[in-house]
Structures are given as structure tokens and as C-alpha cells.
Amino acid sequence: MRVFLPLTAVTAAALLLVTVTGATPAAADRNPDGPPLVKVSHGDPYAKCTIGARSPDSIVYPATEVEPYLSVDPRDPRRVVTVFQQDRWNDGGARGLVASWTTDGHTFHRSTLPFSLCAPGGADYERATDPWVSTGPDGTVYASGEGVDFTKSTRTALLAATSRDGGRTWQNLTTTHVDEQPFFNDKPSLTADPIRNGTAYQVWNRLDNDPPGPSSLDGPGYISVTRDGGRTWSGARPFVDTSTVPNTQTIGHLIVVDRHTGTLYDFFDRITHSEDLSTVVEARYEVVTSTDAGETWSAPVTVAKDTSVPEVDPNDPTKLLRAASTLPSPAVDPKTGTLYMAYEGSDFSGGRFDSVQLVRSTDGGRTWGAPELISPEGVPAFSPSVAVDERGTLALTYYDLRFLEPGDTTTLPTAYQLATLPHGDPQRRTERQISRVFDWLQAPFAGGYFLGDYQGLVADGKGVRAVLTETHSDAPQNRTDVYTGSFRTS
Questions:
Q1: What is its EC number (predicted)?
Q2: Which residues, in sequence order, are CB contacts of 392 under 8 Å at separation 6+?
Q3: Kind and range of the H or E element at 7?
Q4: What's the whole-model pTM score?
């Protein structure tokens, strides 16, 4: 979801944002500069599931895997868990969510996340979306997602589960919050506290359109916390207020933690709409902080103006894309505490298209520098992810369209790039391509050609590990797969 829609339209469009095992062998080398990527999505555990069609116009894309995220065990970087949507629908969500895990960093095995009725033992929801995963300092893996119903009622629920065997099996399935119309929950993320065993934070935005119609939108940030390793979660409560300015919502909440101070930083986009909700009046990224493990939170501080513009095929703007506009990607330097936030913005193109931009703070988020351009000048770029390794090297990944030729309206050649900045120094920036070149227009269509509203990047001890979506040409029964790779940053 990019902007809020009244509930007369939410059921038609709002989700457009938005244990079976099997081993996956390493794929052939798919990136021209570095170690091979490994395919982590193999087979379709939900292929026979017939649940979830909301109307005759509902289209499910079989064997599609999109919107991946990942985590690495801080005790052993070979223990990796990735999560992603499985079998995307055109009108919101997927048949279910899937995890893929490894103990050697190379050979991945599949397990189903119990967040929809398509999954064995899954929650009572017709579809699922917004997969997220994070691993705590004791090795506990926390996964979250959103369950969605359309046919019985319009329900959205925040769900969580834990694994204590590295993603093989999942327990403690918990509904941390659930709403029916006129409320709509969106874009949850989950962060395991890196210094507090058993503690994790789930955050999201909760949209209130009561009564349905214009001039009645409120979209505060909500939080639920576990302090016992995911066995129980606290009642959901608001922690970022939007009630003081009419028709204002938040989106993209994501917490990062400073391991030295224990301070929590929650980043998000605050969007104010016109009275009829048809246009955006103002949008800016903000951060709030907590020094008591999420009990209380500061007033918001502005991080950067959201200058993103519609994501489209540059050669044919009628072709809509779905990437990460409005969604911040933050990170904190584990040595210095410097905060970074990457995002899509159009400051460097005069408002013509989005690039990957970066801002930083060296004083604990109190003040922020001007935006820096990370992706190549003059090239549309999308879906930035950011991480900082143990040596203080800043890494960013993103899709860009540098291979698109003028006049080409039949394909959209796309590649995934990795940029590294030692100690965050833009003068020492290097870049390498880590995916093959693929056609974005082969992706499933869900409010735009959809690779996912986000991809993933984390530090893994020796450098960073990325997870990303690629498409296949001329493969309508297998349009996308998810790949991962580990890359040295120095």
C-alpha cells in the first residue's frame, strides 16, 4: 500500500502493498562479480491449496516467491533463515508464507510458516503477507506476518511464531492483534533485541477509517513485545500518535537497536493526505527512540523528506512497478552508533524518478545530514536495503535499470547491485552487480509488477548477506524465485 484508501476501496486494493521440508541445492553462478547466489525457493508447498479467491477476478500466480527477508544467527553466520511470500495473489497477499533455512550457509531446506489456512496447522486466515524474520542473541528465531481474510469478513491480524531449531520447525503461533473493518493493519516488522535474551518487538501501522469515507483517517504506529522468547506477547498499544493532524497515517515501522547503549530506534514514514484522501499533502520520514526496551518513546524527529514519485517503467509510464517507496531501511553502526537510513527519493532527478538516497546521524538521531546519492546518477533505482558490518563498512543493495535501452517498451532489464562504503565514506564507495540481468515485467502483477515491497540485507560476521527476488522469462507457472548470497565488504 502506498497511500490510504477509504474502506469502500480498501477491500479492493489496500493489500496491494502489502512443516513440509525439502533441500534446495546451490544454484549455478548467477552473478558476474563474486560468489554464486543460492536459490532458496524450491517447489511449491501450497500448490494444491484452493483457499483464498475473493472474486472471479482474483488471480493467483503459482510457484511465485516474492518479498523476501532474512536473518543470520549472531552466534554462527552459517545458520540463516529466509522468509518470503508463496503464490502471490493479484489483489492482495499470498496463499501463505514460507521459510527456508540452512546450517552451512549453502544448502537450504524448506519449512512452512503457520500464518494461513494453506499451511499445515496454520492460522485461520485465507491469505498471508508481509513476512519478516529476526534472530535473537540466544539463537531463537522469531517470524512474523499478517493474516488476511476477504470472503468471511475483512480481517487483518498480526501473527508471530518462534523456532528454536534454526527454522526447521515453528512453535508458539500467536495472534498479537486482530481487527475487522473499519480498521486495517499494515506493514508489520519484527526485531529481536540483540542484547536482551528473549525480547523482540513487533511494530506496524493501524489504520482507522471509522466512519468510512473522507476526513476520518488516523494511522498511528502500534507495538507488541515479547520478553519470554515468543511464548507470550503483550497487548498491542499505540506508540506513535497521528491524531493531531487530520488524515495522517504512518507506514513502514522498523526498529533497530544500538548494541552498546540498548537504545531502540523506530523509523517510519508519516503521510498526511488531502481531505478527500486522494492526494498526499506532506510525507516525511521520522524516528522515535526508547531507552527502556520499548516501554516509553520519545517525540518524533524528522529524518528526511519523502520525495519518492510513482514507480513506473521509464519507457512506458503506464506500466506500474511495485517496490519500496515510503518504506525506510535503517541500520546502526555496531562500533560508533552512527545511524543510517536508506530510502527511495527523487531529490537527485528533479522529481523525475526515484534513486537510492542515504541520510545519517552521528548524535543518536537528534539531527540528520542532507541526502546523499548512492545509486548511479541518471538511473532509476529501487528497493534499497542497508546494513553495517562489524568493521563499520556500510553496505546497500538495490535494483536499478542501467541496462534499459531507450525505446525498449517490451522488457525491463533489471539487476541487483551491492554498494559498499568503508566507514560510511562516500569517497570510497565501490559497487558490484550481484544478480543476473532479468526482466522485471515477468513478475506477478499486484498493483504493479511486484518483486516485493522490500528485500533483505544483514551483516553476517564476514560481511553482509543479501536476499532478493529475480524473475524468469517465459515461465508463467514459475515467474519468480528467491536467491541469497554472502559477500565480503572489504
A1: 3.2.1.18
A2: 333, 334, 335, 336, 422, 423, 424
A3: helix 7-13
A4: 0.93
